Amino acid sequence: MSIFLKCEEANHKCDKNQYKEASFFEMIQLNIHLIYCRVCRKYSSRNNKLTKAFKNKNFKTMPLDQKIKLQERLRQEISK
Amino acid sequence: MATHKIDANKWVDRYSDYLYNYTIVRVNDHEVAQDLISETFFAGLKSAANFKGEASERTWLISILKRKIIDHYRKKNSKKGKAEIRMQYNDSETEGDWLEERVSDPFDKTAEDDMENTELGLAIHECLDGINEKQAAIFKLKTIENYDTEAICNEYNITPSNLWVIIHRARTAMADCLEQKWLK
Q: For chain B, percent helix, then strand, then coil, each to nearest 5?
């Protein structure tokens, strides 16, 4: 296994890293790639920003169990 | 111009997150937000016949929700004594024109930043609506509900490398969309 990645692979590692699923070795590979590849650096920084945006406290979603309850009530109402 | 149609069965899937985000920043209470949204959906069902199809479903639902939020605050306010705001101080001690009162409040700035961020929340939802529906569903499970890669693969019957391709496409689309909508 080479420590040098193709861009495609580097992006894949970067995606995995957003979910903390990249191994330590993969992170080293990614960072080495980022040293010399400007395009992937851009992709990485955008990707990080996106992850941060989802962690923003102002981004909220309805909890899944509530959604299911609501869907059920709505369905009953529709069939009336 | 294409007219919009109502499909109430999909409301929860399509709009509940957006409406929830919209409501929670305005009422700041989880329970109240839930109630307001279900009220909105039921009111929408009742008046579905009045929907002309000129606006999108979401815009129409938001307009109902806005009224519900206003009603919520009206009800809340009628219960307690009316708040008094006095602009004039007639107390001899504090009389006069105080320079301090004219200085801008540094806390206002954070309030404004918060406003910008609330718009970020809605922008994310709008972008999620905009991208490919299947990609969005998988992306949401992974990013918001924090499902395991394996669990999603089993549910959708795909391989992990399929999953990562979908995630990659969704992320690229989301980043493009957010850049346009919000970062400019």
A: 75, 0, 25
Chain A residues with CB under 8 Å of B120 CB are 53, 56, 58-59
Q: Where are the domains of chain B?
A: 1-81, 114-184
- Chains A–B, number of C-beta pairs less than 8 Å apart: 87
* Burial classification of residue B147, based on how many CB atoms lie within 10 Å of its CB (0-12 exposed, 13-18 middle, 19 or more buried): middle
Fold designation for B1-81: Rna Polymerase Sigma Factor; Chain: A (1.10.1740)
Closest CA to B147 of A57, A64, A22, A26: A64
Residues B15-65: pLDDT tens digits? 888 888 888 888 888 888 888 988 898 888 888 877 877 788 888 888 899
B17:A16 CB<8 A: no
In a domain, A2, yes or no: no
Question: What would the two tokens of residue A50 be?
Answer: 């996106």
- Domain count across chain A: 1
Closest listed residue to residue B44, CA positions, set A29, A4, A78, A68: A78
pTM, full prediction: 0.72
Q: A32 to chain B, minimum CA–CA distance in Å?
A: 21
* B124:A59 CB<8 A: yes
**Contact call for B9 and A78, based on CB within 8 A:** yes
Mutation site for A-interface testing, chosen from B145, B168, B179, B182 by largest number of A Cβ within 10 Å? B168
